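Researcher: Structure prediction, please.
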Amino acid sequence: MISIKKSISEEILKGVLKIKSDAELDAHTVVSMLEYPPDSKMGDLALPCFKLSKLLRNSPVRIAQIIAEDFSSPAVAKAEAVNGYFNIFLDGEYLASKAVKETKEKGESFGAPELGAGKTVVLDYSSPNVAKPFHIGHLGTTVIGHSLKKLHEFAGYRCVGINYLGDWGTQFGKLITAYRKWGNKEDVEARGIDALVELYVRINNAISGNEEQGIPADAALADEARAEFRKMEEGDEENIALWKWFVEISLIEYKKTYNQLGIEFDSYKGESFYTDKMPAEVQKLRDMGLLKIDDGASIVDLEAYGMPPCLILKRDGSTLYPTRDIAAAVYRKKTYDFDKAIYVTSAGQSLHFAQWFKVVELMGYDFADKLVHVPYGTVSINGAKLATRTGNVILLKDLFATAIEKVAGIMEEKNPNLENKEKIAEQIGVGAVVFYYLSNNRIRDINFVMEDALSFDGNTGPYVQYTYARTCSVLQKGGKYSIDGTLSITAPEEAELAKTLLRFEETVIDAIDSYEPSVITRYILDVAGAYNRFYHNCSILGAENEQVRNTRLALTEATKTVLGNAFELICLAKTEKV
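Model: Predicted structure follows.
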């Protein structure tokens, strides 16, 4: 649709220059003025001519009339001036021919904008805390982050996916203490991260107390845990060995979930990696006179920028999250020379990122304006608040398992003889959870409802995966077909489907510009809706003649290509049978 809009804008520009020959306007600007009308009766595209009134010193009504007088384009069936709008009705056969030709020629690259050639994007996402489970609260950063990675890769960027593991801090002192008091090697090796979580919950309950369970608070345990972490920081071999073991066990568990989602990372360098890189950044802050002492802590004063101070060092001289993030950003710039560094975390961390981004700027680093925080809202199930310390979590693996089980039950009823039912149930179950999450604007808080997510009717993952499977089935039954000459468009649903398919590239650009994967999920629903209306209202295999039949098979194949390409951008599996 981008190329169609451009050619139409060049024709519109001819009319504009008839009104004012020296008008400072180009086709690119006209493209940005074109709109999709809310009602198809107003056309497929429209130019609100009031946008040109000031430049052309003329009324919108008169501008629209002059543009319409000699307007001609092979992509346009009809154009008319109506109340100051220039309304454009696109030619169905032109749209269908373009959609079929380009999807066939470009295949997996159809819809890919040429934005990122020679550019590198670093994406920091997922980043679970080691020895803690992957719960539903991690879903947002993981699937939003990976979708943004896929979108940028699709647009030609070199992408580096970084899993910035939470693998350092006082929680490991707690875990080491708990392991030595209550754990054993055999149990941890047998049950993996589940055993570590139990130990972590147990020591937190022991430190803070738990009235319901009759556990008195034990402040001495907290001191013991801090002492164990200090030993870690000082390089104690026994504690370091335990810590490495905890990290290894955690990664084994996390990678099971990543495999289900089809996610791979380029780097798993966590917080611990930057321990020896922070002192140089702290010294630079000190040398520049940016560090101030406030009640014993070292801070950067950000009052002039409307923010609280950014804490760099605690009273005891230990570092904090901003210190590590600054050191990590400097390292990543030196290592990857990124053009953009994207951080996908909860909206609750927005101030943290604004603060340390500003500190990086004050330090004189020229990449400060290339740091991007992509926030997202909270997620819950039936309003349940999540907290690892108390054990009140809904594990992602359990959520996936429940979804897969429910989908398997539905499939057993609908298609008991389906081959590879287990694999397909997993693809649809996991896809349902992901699609449900990514269907919402990322900044919104989400209350997850399993029944809604798994429905095969409505705006869901199973519905769009079923639509993809439908295109595969139609093409298999239709067999070989050929397109010679022009396509035969005999129904409005055919033209509408072609127009929707051609919107893919500009949709991808919109999703990248707004860092918003839900733009893609909404587009997928538009394609699925357009195809299903076409499927129900236009006989494909039983079409009235071979040319119409071939046209409809070609549109089905184009739909399969576009849906498949779009699925790839949101971690959704392409299911050929359901």
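Model: The mean pLDDT is 91.
Researcher: Thanks, that helps.
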